């Protein structure tokens, strides 16, 4: 007589969950040879609700992946689908009182990295489809002359250095002003290691003196400040003429409530976020990670989707994870979104290499 079959042993995760982060080879293979549907999952009728939620997420991803094969950019589409499905899974996880999948307690890029590394063979691709460095093509030469280093602007000199343009590329326009900028930024980099104001000020004076010597070697008219006698008089003249004495050209206040093409072009370039109050970092991170790889004309709709999904996920998290000091989650839509827009997303300070549109304006 055959012994009775032992019931299957169910663990904390299903085979195949979480799904692997989409990479180009896997997406191409999926579109070329779509996998067959797996057999229905025979879970016990009671308990194991956490496995049912995982199975539902895997089932929701399959048609999204198939639809991406018909998209003109399948890889970004697949990555957005993967992110959306797992964010929805986390929303469902926080809708019950049992312990949530641990990656759901993270936000934005940290959550995506956590899920991708939970796969049997992690496939996290650290190279984004959108290269922020292409944004440097949109950055203009800083206005001349550079401001005088002071105690009040040294933080910007050092903190925003990576957002100011570097040396010009081959064939780009050069001259005494460009050479001064390149030399000065190089010296500032050395001075910023110790945040030395005296070092930065000395580099500024020496750079301007050399600039004036180079100016005098050409037949075109010299800058008026070079005609002042003595380095101190020239320094005072240049300091007074600086259009951005605080080195704050790259510092901006923006609203993330309804990002349009111009703002997204800025956000998808090199940036540094200074507003660190929640939920700004995770919402901005979700937008840039999911939307910047897309063609520019698709980013606006993507950004709205990511903000809406991010807000829904935040409002589904336990109060001890995020306290929602403005009480926005207590509202129903559309008042909830309006509350987020007006309180959390309306005044965000960031550094950006590509200037965003003025606050309240959009192209």
UniProtKB/TrEMBL annotation:
InterPro entries assigned: ECM1 (IPR008605), Serum_albumin-like (IPR020858)
Localization, UniProt: Secreted
Keyword Heme: no
Keywords attached to this entry: Repeat, Secreted
Top-level lineage group: Eukaryota
PANTHER family with a match to the protein in the record: EXTRACELLULAR MATRIX PROTEIN 1 (PTHR16776:SF3)
Protein name: Extracellular matrix protein 1
Species per Swiss-Prot/TrEMBL record: Cyanoderma ruficeps (rufous-capped babbler)
């Amino acid at each position: 007589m055959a012994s009775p079959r032992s019931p299957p042993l169910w663990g904390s995760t299903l085979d195949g969950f979480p799904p692997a982060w989409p990479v180009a080879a896997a997406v191409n293979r999926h579109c070329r040879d779509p996998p067959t549907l797996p057999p229905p999952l025979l879970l016990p009728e009671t308990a194991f609700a956490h496995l049912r939620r995982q199975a539902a997420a895997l089932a929701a991803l399959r048609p999204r992946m198939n639809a991406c094969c018909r998209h003109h950019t399948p890889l970004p589409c697949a990555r957005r689908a993967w992110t959306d499905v797992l964010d929805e899974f986390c929303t469902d996880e926080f809708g019950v009182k049992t312990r949530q999948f641990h990656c759901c307690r993270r936000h934005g890029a940290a959550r995506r990295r956590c899920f991708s590394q939970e796969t049997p063979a992690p496939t996290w691709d650290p190279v984004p489809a959108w290269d922020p460095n292409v944004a440097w093509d949109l950055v203009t030469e800083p206005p001349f002359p550079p401001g005088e280093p002071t105690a009040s602007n040294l933080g910007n000199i050092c903190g925003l250095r990576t957002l100011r343009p570097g040396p010009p590329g081959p064939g780009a326009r050069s001259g005494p002003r460009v050479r001064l900028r390149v030399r000065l930024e190089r010296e500032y980099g050395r001075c910023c290691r110790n945040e030395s104001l005296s070092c930065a000020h000395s580099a500024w004076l020496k750079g301007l003196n050399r600039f004036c010597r180079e100016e005098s070697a050409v037949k075109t008219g010299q800058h008026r400040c070079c005609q002042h006698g003595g380095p101190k008089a020239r320094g005072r003249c240049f300091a007074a003429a600086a259009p951005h004495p605080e080195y704050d050209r790259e510092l901006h206040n923006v609203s993330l409530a309804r990002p349009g093409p111009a703002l997204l072009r800025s956000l998808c370039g090199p940036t540094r976020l200074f507003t660190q109050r929640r939920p700004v970092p995770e919402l901005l991170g979700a937008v840039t990670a999911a939307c910047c790889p897309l063609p520019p004309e698709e980013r606006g709709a993507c950004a709205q989707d990511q903000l809406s999904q991010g807000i829904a996920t935040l409002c589904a998290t336990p109060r001890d994870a995020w306290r929602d000091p403005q009480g926005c989650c207590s509202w129903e839509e559309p008042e909830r979104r309006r509350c987020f827009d007006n309180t959390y997303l309306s005044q965000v300070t960031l550094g950006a290499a590509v200037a965003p549109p003025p606050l309240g304006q959009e192209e």
